[in-house]
DNA sequence: TTGAAAGCGCTAACAC
DNA sequence: GTGTTAGCGCTTTCAA
């Protein structure tokens, strides 16, 4: 690797002159600058960032800690962040936790060792105490999920309201028993969505008995499949279900297709998020659209301002983006039980 | 930030002793090691990788340069790589090019400055000459696309055969005019797929006149929409279409749903890749499944071995994974033109 | 078993 | 306008 010293020797200059020329310092003559730049280009000089960092320069690298990049929520986030960061000369390190706190810890150790300038994290349910400690030493923002031990900078969506809306829509249509397949209550998002679901039930004067709840790993398509099978096989199967994560929605949709369940006549469904295939699934999936893109951009811009300006504004910050119900064909009032209609179809 | 010197001062030791204790050097007594480790943990010491790198240590960071992480091919790749690298203590820097060679160049400059240990790249159609130069200085592998100027280490899929299979299937069913929507021929993948398409046409004794070809940005869902609209509006609309990228497939499927085109009676369709929604689209999408996961894992493992062992094996390496046709309901023999059958449906 | 000192590549304070 | 020098945090001789 070519160093400033190599250039200096070739040009019979001192390293500091070369360094200054490369930094476009006022004190260096245009002619010298030109010669230096020329030589640098010819020799293929690339500045060594490690050396710069040792002189106190910031790393220009931001860590993105998420459960799984295959989840479209997270790939959307990664894309938005990457785009915005590149524009300002930042780089993004991708760290996947698979929702495992020990993996999360290992990643945070690595990021700390790399002296990343900042971290954007979707924390696991209960981050390790060392993770908490590590994050104290680096500017960071939480995304989607919010764990109080990790500080009060957070960008997320209104999970409570998302599921309240989804469920209220089903309640309004007169469904007597409504199922819910969502993430675990240990996750802040899981807890909020579940609360939203329950709130809509009681808001519709339905007892909690009317809700059949299946909780499990939010990133598991397979769990979505199994959960919906259990729900439909139960003694008092629901006439409608609300979903509490993108991956679970994917699993549920696949399984309903496979089982050839008639939607919405036999079962109404409200999904979570809005993926490409959702609009063409069966009669079109009614779902909760979330402004993930805007949220991610906001988060990225916020962190970069935090990193590039004096951190005088390290106060609490929370941004809650609202979701909105997208009505398509997968929801309808329940069929009248034990009183088959004369007409076939609508 | 705590340094080895801080620990040394507190324990009344020299920095070198502390360094050796932390590195578990044989010459240090167990007792001293214990005291040092204790203090390090208490004080929250995290080794400074920049300093290590200046002493010649490798960076343990690999750059992943791809067009767009939202494309599920690439998010799958990123996930597989991330998982495998984490297991061996490597980190992944995510660089999105948006298929723009200048953005690609900027990313490669940054990666070089960071002295990444290696690079995995899905190159743009014509990488900048400086990009080529930069890559010469760092171990790298090409993924999916292969540009000869970037060396001969490559992991990809058999693009030619993928489209040959897809098209041959349509030819066998007797389609007289077959459309193709794919990426530009400037891209190595685009060129191969197009060749595969043409090869199947001539293999079926169809003249090239029988092919209606629409090329455009391979990552643009919107282009897929427009292309299929143009294809169907043409004077001699095809009775079947083969698709040449995941994103284009998504666009085409959406548009066909929107236009309410009857598949496969009015039009047969073969997709590219196998996304979650493909199985439940219309009658189920017949498509080409590609072993992206295996390819990515192979690539990651290969690069890491290259990085962790002596580079005595820097010879050419190419791995070509085959795709396979997944038959679902979206393809059928063409309807007899101008001779409507008496029977309705099948 | 431990310490002192040099040096990785760069920048900045201090000469001249 | 340019050179000299010190030092960032760490590893690694070379001494003791």
TrEMBL record, chains A, B:
InterPro entries: HTH_LacI (IPR000843), LacI/GalR-like_sensor (IPR046335), Lambda_DNA-bd_dom_sf (IPR010982), Peripla_BP_I (IPR028082)
Domain HTH lacI-type: 2-56
UniProt xrefs under PROSITE patterns: HTH_LACI_2
Alphabetized UniProt keyword annotations: DNA-binding, Transcription, Transcription regulation
Region entry Disordered, spans: 313-346
A Pfam match: Peripla_BP_3
Molecular function GO terms recorded: DNA-binding transcription factor activity; transcription cis-regulatory region binding
PANTHER family, per database record: LACI-RELATED TRANSCRIPTIONAL REPRESSOR (PTHR30146), TRANSCRIPTIONAL REGULATORY PROTEIN (PTHR30146:SF138)
Name recorded for this polypeptide: LacI family transcriptional regulator
């Amino acid at each position: 690797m070519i160093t400033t010293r190599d250039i200096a020797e070739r040009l019979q200059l001192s390293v500091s002159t070369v360094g200054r020329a490369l930094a476009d310092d006022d004190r260096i003559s245009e002619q010298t600058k030109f010669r230096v730049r020329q030589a640098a280009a010819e020799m293929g000089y690339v500045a060594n960032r490690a050396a710069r960092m040792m002189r106190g320069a910031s790393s220009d690298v931001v860590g993105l800690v998420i459960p799984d990049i295959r989840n479209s929520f997270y790939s959307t986030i990664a894309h938005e962040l990457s785009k915005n960061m590149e524009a300002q000369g930042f780089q993004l390190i991708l760290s996947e936790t698979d929702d495992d706190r020990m993996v999360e810890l290992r990643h945070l150790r690595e990021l700390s060792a790399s002296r990343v300038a900042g971290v954007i994290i979707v924390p696991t349910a209960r981050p390790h105490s060392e993770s908490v400690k590590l994050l104290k030493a680096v500017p960071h923002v939480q995304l989607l999920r919010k764990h109080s031990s990790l500080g009060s900078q957070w960008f997320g969506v209104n999970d409570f309201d998302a599921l309240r809306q989804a469920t209220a829509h089903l309640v309004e249509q007169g469904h007597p028993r409504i199922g819910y397949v969502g993430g675990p209550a240990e996750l802040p998002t899981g807890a909020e969505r579940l609360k939203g679901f329950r709130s809509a039930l009681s808001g519709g004067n339905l007892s909690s008995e009317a809700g059949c709840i299946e909780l499990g790993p939010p990133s598991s398509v397979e769990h979505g499949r199994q959960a919906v099978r259990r729900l439909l096989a139960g003694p008092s199967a629901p006439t409608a279900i609300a979903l509490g994560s993108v991956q679970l929605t994917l699993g549920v949709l696949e399984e309903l297709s496979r089982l050839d369940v008639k939607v919405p006549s036999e079962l109404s469904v409200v999904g979570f998020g809005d993926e490409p295939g959702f609009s063409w699934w069966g009669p079109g999936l009614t779902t909760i659209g979330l402004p993930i893109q805007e949220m991610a951009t906001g988060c990225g811009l916020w962190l970069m301002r935090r990193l590039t300006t004096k951190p005088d504004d390290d106060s609490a910050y929370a941004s809650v983006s609202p979701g909105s119900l997208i009505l398509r064909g997968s929801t309808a009032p329940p069929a009248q039980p034990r009183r088959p209609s004369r007409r076939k179809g609508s």
